[in-house]
Each structure stands twice: as C-alpha cells, then as structure tokens.
Design a protein that fits this description.
By secondary structure, the protein is an alpha+beta fold. About 40% of the residues lie in helices and about 10% in strands. Helix 9 runs antiparallel to helix 10.
C-alpha cells in the first residue's frame, strides 16, 4: 500500500506481467513473433539426427523436409538407415532415367490415373485455401514454394517425404506431402493441384491459438504416417550414434539430449516416460563419448587433465557453508 500526503493509504497498482509471445489475441505483431519463434525452432530441430522413425534436413530458412518410415521394422537386427539428402538425390536421378527409358520404349508419356478422393479429411479444401490467402477472388490457394512437379526428392515405397514450411506470406506453418501421395489420400480432379494442397492437421490448425512447436507437427506426421503407429514418435536409434566418429558422436548425442529435454519441458505428452528413459540412456553414453574423446588422438596432450576416480571425489572435504 502506498502512503498519501494526507496520511491515508492508497491502493497499490498491480504490476503488469510481460505478455507471452505465443498466447493471447493473435495480432499482426504477435503473429510475426510466433512465426519468428517457430522458424528459430525449426532451424535448431532440423539439425538433430539419430531418430529411429524419421530423418530431417533443412531446405532453406523456411522449409524442413521430414522423411518418415511407412511401417515399423518388425524383423530382428538394426533398423534400415533412412536415406540422407545425397542418397535421395542419387535415387531421384536413377528414377528419372528409368522413367525416361520407359517413356521412350512406350512411345508416349506416362499419364497418372486419377481416382475420386473418398476421404476428404487430410487435405485443406480448395475453398479454405483461397479464404486463408485473402485472394479468394483470384482463385489463389496455398501452394508451397517448390511445386510437386519440380520436386527432386526420391520416391521410395518404404518412406514418405513431408514438407514443413513457415512462409511469411501465409502467416503460419503448413505441411505438404512430397512423395507417395496416393498412400496418404486418393487424388481427385487436377493431380497437380491436389499434390500441392497442404494437409489438415490438428497441430497446424491450433497454431494460431496455442503454443504449437515444430516437434508437435512432426509427432503428428509420424502418427498418421506409420503403420502401426509408434508409441514414441521420437524414439532414438542408438546404433546410429555408435557408428559415428567420436567427435561427431559427442556433438550429435548432445544435440539429441538437448532436443529431448525441450520436448519434455514444452508440455505433457503420452510418451514422456519413454523419452525420459531413452534420454537418460543417451546422456550416459554422451558422457562416455566425452571420456573417449578426451583419451583420443583428437584431444591435444597439452590440455588433457588427469582422470579423477569417484573415491578421490568422495575424499574431498566439503566446506561447512555448503
């Protein structure tokens, strides 16, 4: 309470708390802030490697390609590695050569057969796309910056490629299927228009009102793509970390632990317990990697430190004030 000149006490003014950049009415300024935070997270998450069910790589500042397994591996042994960007490009070139050879042998171009879309639930409708862009009178939709017909990603029946993009002109994140479209939905009408229509996801729909992170979008994609669905979409592949050179293993495992901690801190998930168990296992291995790096030839002799055993640590006297 504040003291006035006449001796009476005046009620104190409540202190205003800083508004959260991801909650409250979505003004234009708040939308730009949410977009900046989403893009920053996308850049960080896109560099994390070592997941069991999917692989990511960044394609520019606004685009993130996510390659997800279609089915869980049931046979024993280490999982088949998901092809990286270079391998996908090589596969794409081989597929282009095979298609060209088939067209030359047939004497006419191959035409994709259309079928009626009987689901109507996975894609944002054309009318909604036009309304969201604000150019409904012009017939404009929500196509990605890289149309499907110019996509250079390889088509593999075992994997499906998705594009997560946060374009400034759309004012929010959207997801497009980049391969195996027929597996996600049946194409109807104009194939090129349907292939470039974004998916209707719970996470992207809730982005304007909730604090949706890029890993929430990835988790939903893994859930709808994989059969049977994975109990933990962010399960890690320990064999991947063991196969890396020691310096890369230290950095990659540290990045994965940091990412998993951010997922746990963001909100509650049904798979939090599984993430915690795998994160603990990887954290132990991360410190083992650090010890191996210290003893390796990559670590200069002049900055090495002698090993300290646990018995020596226990014998160190603790000050009274601690």
């Amino acid at each position: 309470m504040a003291q006035r000149k006449d001796g009476a006490t005046a009620p104190s003014q409540p202190t205003s708390q800083p508004a959260s950049p991801t909650k409250g009415p979505l003004t234009e300024e708040r939308r730009k802030m949410k977009m900046a935070l989403f893009l920053a997270d996308q850049l960080r998450v896109g560099c994390v490697k070592g997941f069991k069910y999917f692989r990511m790589y960044l394609r520019g500042r606004e685009e993130l390609i996510v390659t997800i397994r279609n089915e869980q591996q049931t046979r024993a042994g280490p999982p088949t590695p998901i092809p990286d960007q270079a391998q996908q490009h090589q596969m794409y070139l081989q597929q282009q050569q095979q298609q060209l050879l088939q067209q030359q042998q047939a004497g006419r171009p191959r035409v994709a057969s259309n079928s009626i879309d009987d689901s109507g639930t996975l894609q944002v409708t054309s009318r909604t796309q036009k309304r969201l862009t604000g150019f409904e009178y012009a017939g404009a939709g929500l196509p990605p910056a890289s149309p499907a017909e110019r996509e250079t990603l390889a088509v593999d029946a075992k994997y499906t490629n998705f594009l997560i993009a946060a374009y400034a002109r759309y004012g929010g994140p959207y997801v497009w299927v980049r391969s195996n479209h027929e597996r996600m939905f049946k194409l109807g009408g104009d194939p090129s228009a349907n292939r470039d229509s974004p998916l209707k996801l719970r996470s992207t729909n809730a982005w304007t009102t909730n604090d949706v992170k890029v890993w929430d979008v990835i988790a939903e994609l893994v859930d709808i793509c994989m059969q049977p669905p994975a109990s933990n979409p962010f399960a890690i592949d320990m064999n991947y970390f063991e196969s890396l050179p020691i310096l890369e293993a230290v950095m990659t495992s540290g990045a994965m632990v940091h990412f998993m901690q951010r997922v746990l801190d963001s909100c509650r998930h049904t798979y939090d317990k599984q993430i915690m168990e795998e994160m603990t296992q990887l954290l132990v291995r991360h410190y083992e990697f650090l010890a191996e790096l210290r003893d390796s030839e990559l670590f200069p002799d002049r900055v090495r430190r002698p090993r300290v055993s646990m018995s020596e640590v226990e014998d160190i006297p603790v000050p009274d004030y601690l």
